[in-house]
Amino acid sequence: SDYSREPPRHPSLKINAKEPFNAEPTRQDLILSYITPVDYFYKRNHGPIPIVEDIDRYSLAIDGLVEKPIQLSMAQIRLLPKYNVTATLQCAGNRRTAMSQQLKVRGVGWDISALGNAVWGGAKLSDVLELVGVSKLTSVTSSGGKHVEFISIDKCKEEKGGPYKASVPLSQATNPEADVLLAYEMNGEILNRDHGYPLRVVVPGVIGARSVKWLDRITIIEQECQGFFMQKDYKMFPPSVNWDNIDWSTRRPQMDFPVQSAICSLHDVDIVKPGKVRIAGYAVSGGGRGIERVDVSIDGGKTWFEASRYQKTGVPYVSDDDSSCDKWAWVLFEAIVNLQSENADIVVKAVDSSANVQPENVMSIWNLRGILNTSWHHVYVRSTA
Ligand code: MTE
Ligand code: MO
Question: Which DSSP letter does residue 3 get?
Fold first, then answer.
């Protein structure tokens, strides 16, 4: 594998693995703005970043169980109606390091910033599939439970040098409301190489692993994608499963991510002045569920109060009100607390619009791959005058 032509990256990113390149922004940088600048957006790769040199020769193949397979140029994709969808992409491995500190797990270590919120611009997958004769809102019954597989042009060792792939159910792919995009823009700029130039999938509300970058081919298949990252990775196992007794076939590939939140304004073990302290961070849920509430504690979870939530400044955030909020996007939260005690255990947990809550204890959701650590996020601070 060839890492000699990697793109430039912002020097402030914390590098968790160099080859393949995996990096996240600092906690402070992550919440500087509601829309994450491309420079500060986490980068998660399984191989070298491919190069598409000549965009005029790039084409996307759409084939499989369709009436008329086609090849689309970038120019043809750009002719389709363009949508801008604000969506948070979160890696299933976000917060893995904290899980591994309790009991070792396998995988790239991430702090709390393996996510970002961007405005993705592109064509809807439902419009693209109409071009091959697959109509919108194809139900599970009428499709016979088919799937849409996304195949990349990158090469990764987990696929024995083959491309990264993933799939979503055809019923989700053909649903315009699911907002599955073939994105060629990120925050109004041409998608850069790290994030999938020239074209990537964005599956809102679903773990980042399904949003395939550097898209080469879309194929309609009978069964879900049999690739490594669908079948031998990114599955949530119970704490009792270890590397000796694991049977990958017993679990389904993880799709939606659960409710998550974390404090970004503080670290373990910051020294703060007694008095007013700002507690700020993000909360997000999968599946288009909004954030109903963010609870903050400064006594380790004995007593709680509610933080304020916001997306766009000046617009009140009302979860599940599509007209005023971005349903696929995180909320930022903020609370000003009065810290007097010498040692404070500051905690955050969020509640989503289906009343799902985060588990208190990380070991209750421990799994050998260290995915979906959504346990209450703690920061321990000391206050001295
Ligand atoms: N697509 C390809 N082709 N190759 C990859 O390694 N990584 C996936 C997904 N799509 C990956 C991919 C994972 S695990 C995540 S979390 C997201 O891309 C990360 O997207 P980002 O690097 O744009 O933040
Ligand atoms: Mo990921």
Answer: -
Backbone angles phi, psi at 140, to 5 degrees: -60, -40
ipTM: 1.00
Name the residues around ion ligand 2, CB cutoff 5 A.
44, 91, 208-209
List the chain domain ranges: 14-250, 260-383
Give the binding-site residues of ligand 1, using a 6 Å CB cut-off.
41-46, 89, 91, 152, 154, 164, 195, 208-209, 211-214
Tokens in use for 131? Answer: 């071009």
CA of residue 86 to ligand 2 center, whole Å: 19
The CATH topology of domain 260-383 is Immunoglobulin-like (2.60.40)
CATH architecture of the domain with residue range 14-250: Alpha-Beta Complex (3.90)
Q: Tokens standing for 296?
A: 């903050």
Q: Whose CA is nearest to atom 9 of ligand 1?
A: 209
Cβ neighbourhood burial of 47 (10 Å; 0-12, 13-18, 19+): buried
The tens place of each residue's pLDDT in the chain, 385 residues long, gives 699 999 999 999 999 999 999 999 999 999 999 999 999 999 999 999 999 999 999 999 999 999 899 999 999 999 999 999 999 999 999 999 999 999 999 999 999 999 999 999 999 999 999 999 999 988 888 888 999 999 999 999 999 999 999 999 999 999 999 999 999 999 999 999 999 999 999 999 999 999 999 999 999 999 999 999 999 999 999 999 999 999 999 999 999 999 999 999 999 989 999 999 999 999 999 999 999 999 999 999 999 999 999 998 888 898 878 788 999 999 999 999 999 888 999 999 999 999 999 999 999 999 999 999 999 999 999 988 7
| Separation of CA 83 and ligand 2 centre (Å) | 24
116 token code pair:
């970002």
| Index of the ligand 1 atom closest to the CA of residue 41 | 24
Residue nearest to atom 21 of ligand 1 (CA): 43
Q: Which atom of ligand 1 is nearest to the CA of 164?
A: 3
